[in-house]
Amino acid sequence: MCLLPLALAAQNDVLKVAPASTVTGKRGEKIQVKTNLQLQNGYHLNSNKPSDPYLIPLRLTWDANTVETVSVEFPAPKMESYAFSEKPLSVFTGDFAITSTVTPKTPGFTVLTGKLRYQACNHNACLPPKTIDIKVPADFR
Amino acid sequence: MGGIGRGIVGCENSWNGPAASAIDILKAKEFYVRLATICTVIAALCLAGCGMAPDTARAAVKAESTRKSAPDFTLKDADGKVVKLSDYKGKVVLLNFWATWCGPCKIEIPWFVEFEQNYRDKGFAVLGVSMDEDGWESVKPYLAANKVNYRVVIGDDMTAQKYGGVESLPTSFIVDQEGRTAVVHIGLVSKKDYKNDIEHLLGISSGKNAAVVPVAPGARGAE
After folding, report:
1. pLDDT mean by block of 10 residues, chain B; 223 residues
2. What angle do CA A31, A90, A74 make, to 5 degrees?
3. Residue A84, CA atoms < 13 Å, CB-side half-sphere
4. Which residues in chain B are closer than 8 Å to A88, comparing Cβ atoms?
5. Cβ separation of B101 and A3 shorter than 8 Å?
6. How far apart are CA A109 and CA A106, in angstroms?
7. CA distance A10 to A14
8. Could you give the CA distance from residue B28 to residue A97 in angstroms, rounded to a whole number?
9. Model ipTM value
């Protein structure tokens, strides 16, 4: 009974992706797609450039069938100290956003599909790495 | 208790009447200080009792009558040799689910190296179960770099399911000489906790630290 909160915390998704509004743009033009993320309090994700080569970085990739990815910009990571690490770790916590710049390939209504891969820990345990789908409605002219 | 009763009277006098004396006010303050102290103690006892104390130091050696068989499994070690948990019957086994990407897991590994060295001849073994997706590609270099002296196998979903899913790492089970799960540790716990558990199961006395603490109810997995 008393262990239940930890067990449930482990089972639940600790990262939430905010629903995306429709992006618009013209074929061949650069458009920005913002992915807003909310991480459960007490957890951290390794940044896109983790401090340790064994750590799993945050990654966002877009399906190349609908758009060409120009860049994926992550916010500045926090350098946070944890009891389990001798040196501070490069992490993301709380609410943050990833900004992608893409160019539409074909005109029309479509859905951009991305894959977000992350790995979360709290101060004394880690959850397995996870890859989730990101879907963004798009109207390309 | 009498003090609290007196405090309540003082409290009522202080807050309900305009002619409250300085003594009444002091009595009321004394009452609230005592009340705060009692509440703090009760809260601390509740947290400790529910296993929510810092570092989740909740696990302890279970009474023999409540231990259940640890599920057997067959996995391969770094040399390709088949490893079965049942091969270890007669030994106390620290079965540690971990991964190279798990920071808290890596704190424990030097402790386990030390335990393996100190208790190997006393009927003890550490068995690491790596949950790295890329298997030996990450694990072999890590084991070599950190001079890991105990056996490690690559785990799979089936093995994890047998042990309750192993939804977070590190998760460790200490299996007694009869092949039963005696201890479950979920998340990082202290080296002292592990040492106490191991020494208790091996029958090594280490003074007051060897005391058996009743296990918190609800521990999941292979209990």
Report:
1. 32 33 46 50 40 42 95 96 96 98 97 98 98 96 97 96 95 97 96 96 69 41 45
2. 0
3. 24
4. none
5. no
6. 9
7. 8
8. 52
9. 0.87
